[in-house]
Design brief:
By secondary structure, the chain is an all-alpha fold. The chain has one domain: A middle domain of Talin 1 (Up-down Bundle). The protein is 78% helix and 2% strand. The two termini are 24 Å apart.
């Protein structure tokens, strides 16, 4: 095991990689959205959300089979962190304005999948069959998001908000001869951003675990706090960068999409590999996760989440972390 000083230095390097990767991922996503006239929110909920969820997926695959509690702690803890920490900090940095569809469809869908996870856990296990069902649900949701991407479109070069009637999909498609050039630049930037996010999150998380263990923290506590916060850093960096650049839809779409993918993709893949035993204490974490989602829904009633609401989310998340550490 490396020393505490080396672990701290490597964790700092990982955080730096996250910052650069978040910038590249947002820039690439915005450029694709503008060129294809796809709603930035949909880009945030699909391409960007998939990219920023890769650290959770990697951590869960590595833990599959032997550390089921760590997997659920990572998923549930990350979803709580995404709302309490990421959206909270983003709202403190700048008022988060959202479309009506976020209130009427997107957040309710996120809550619905959260409740599905609770239902599948009711027998004390998320079986391989349950995992397969979650993966099928992921495919269905991805198909829904893809269809929506081509229906909800704005004018060329991102001039609209994607709320009006869409034009035919062919109108925004590049000619066959120029397709490679059309996608190459932003596509490469997205790929590089995802690679940096994944590597940076791995460095940050692995070395944060070393630091946590050196202070005698339990594996469960590491899962719901250190690893959950660490794997949520890409969402935090990406969302804050997006919102500060004026791309609020990408920022909020990233969080909603990431929370859905955490449940369907991360839990689904890990459960399909080996099944996941669900401890009784996990249901309390489920309740907190759904509670934060409901608080977000209430906070967005006016169509915007301001600094006071953001500060309240951050304070609630800090209180949750404090309780988790005290409970051990």
């Amino acid at each position: 095991m490396i020393g505490v000083e080396a672990a701290a230095a490597l964790a700092a390097v990982g955080l730096g990689m996250l910052c650069v990767g978040g910038n590249w991922l947002v820039d690439g996503g915005v450029r694709i959205a503008r060129r294809l006239r796809i709603s930035p929110f949909v880009i945030g909920m699909t391409v960007v959300a998939y990219g920023t969820s890769t650290p959770e997926l990697a951590a869960s695959i590595a833990a599959a089979g032997e550390h089921g509690g760590l997997i659920l702690g990572n998923v549930v803890g990350s979803n709580i962190a995404n709302v309490g920490m990421v959206i909270g900090v983003s709202a403190v940095a700048a008022t988060v304005v959202v479309r009506r569809g976020v209130l009427t469809a997107d957040v309710p869908i996120m809550i619905g999948f959260s409740m599905l996870l609770v239902a599948l856990s009711a027998d004390g296990e998320i079986s391989r069959h349950d995992g397969a069902f979650l993966i099928v649900s992921l495919a269905a949701f991805s198909a829904y998001a893809y269809r929506r991407a081509w229906k909800v479109r704005g004018p060329p070069d991102g001039g609209g908000d994607g709320e009006g009637p869409g034009r035919p999909a062919a109108a925004g498609a590049p000619p066959a001869a120029g397709a490679l050039k059309f996608y190459a630049g932003p596509g490469a930037k997205i790929a590089a951003g995802v690679a940096l996010l994944g590597a940076g999150a791995w460095l940050a998380v692995e070395n944060a675990v070393v630091l946590a263990q050196s202070f005698g923290l339990s594996e469960r506590l590491i899962g719901i706090t250190v690893i959950a916060v660490g794997t949520s850093l890409p969402e935090l960096v990406t969302s804050v960068v997006a919102i500060r650049k004026g791309h609020t839809d990408i920022g909020i779409g990233n969080i909603i999409g990431s929370n859905i993918y955490n449940i369907l993709m991360i839990t689904g893949v890990a459960a399909a590999m080996a099944g996941i035993a669900v401890a009784e204490s996990t249901f309390a974490d489920y309740a907190v996760m759904i509670g934060f989602s409901l608080a977000l829904l209430v906070g967005l009633r006016s169509g915007a989440l301001g600094r006071p609401a953001g500060a309240a989310l951050v304070a609630a998340y800090c209180a949750y972390l404090a309780f988790a550490f005290l409970a051990g």
